[in-house]
Write a structure and sequence with these properties.
This protein has seven helices and 14 strands. It is of the alpha+beta class and 261 residues long. Helix 6 crosses helix 7.
Amino acid sequence: MLPLESLLQGSSQRQELLPIVAAAETALRTWEPTWTPLLAAALREEAEQRFAALSDLSLASAGGYAGAERRRLLLQRSELAQPVEELDAGLGGLEISGNFLFDPAEPSDLREGLRAAGAAAGELGDLWIRGDRGGQAIVSAELAQRLNGQLGRVRSVEVRFEVRPIAELQLPPERIERSLTTVEASLRLDAVGSAGFGLSRSRLVERIRRGEVRVDWQPVTSPSRELAPGQRVQLEGRGELLIETAEPTLRGRWRVVIKRR
């Protein structure tokens, strides 16, 4: 048995971590590779950090493509660990087709539409928009087959779900890590985030108020939230910003160095 209390001590996601602990125990007991469901990035990162000290356990992850945020953890005995590329992660692609010309959608809308169609959280990976034609998603292979050919609804739009091999999806472009410097009147989330993500401030404010922007993986709904060096800002479909430094200028503004990844 794993040292449960020491593994989970101080965690704010204790209940969410318990099934991952159970999967790790299964992998150690059976000597067989064990996959978790698709996990939100915050939970996956915490599991990786907490399990890192277990020398007999090897962790890897798969989300369908290199830059995926939501991923399945692969848990194996260290001495028998196989490369993640050699194991079937049980993932598939899904096309979500509809006419969004008059009612544009965000990835969060696609997620809600899939949940309304019966998808569980652990079956959903990353989702992205494809203009006004709908979107695509990485999902569990089982969910892809279950929804194939079915109709659903995203916002006010009727959509059709169709299986697509992941290799045939138009995957989001791979993000290249880069640093940028911006001078802002304040360290407000909407000001710094707008510069970092390359979105208009009004558009970012809308997404903040919808709960789509996170600071250190925690949803934030206030555009006036003050940021500080070391904090990370996440926006689905846009990646992550790391606030590296923030220094006052002689004119009472802030020079902020951001790493976008």
